[in-house]
Amino acid sequence: MNSYYVYIMTSKRNGTLYVGVTNNLKKRVWQHKNDIVEGFTSRYEVHSLVYFEETSNVDAAITREKQLKKWNRAWKLKLIENKNPNWKDLYEEL
What we know:
The chain has one domain: GIY-YIG endonuclease (3-Layer(aba) Sandwich), CATH 3.40.1440.10. It has helices spanning about 25-35, 40-45, 60-70, 75-85, and strands spanning about 5-10, 15-20, 50-55. With about 90 residues, it is α+β, with helices and mostly antiparallel strands. It is globular.
């Protein structure tokens, strides 16, 4: 059974947010943290994993990512704070 992840990363508490989807969360977050791929997360120093969801359905993961990207900022902040009120970097727990 495969796992797919929708995740939110940030530059700092209440900072720049990035929403993504992957099938290998640990590897993908490591890539963000180490600026392996040039782009948004490297440009804005978005290196902390603050939220993620797991599903076994790739279509559900992609749909959820698109949904979260359309959400306004306040909704995303509430989502993060409901599960991670201290904005702890969850990467070490993976």
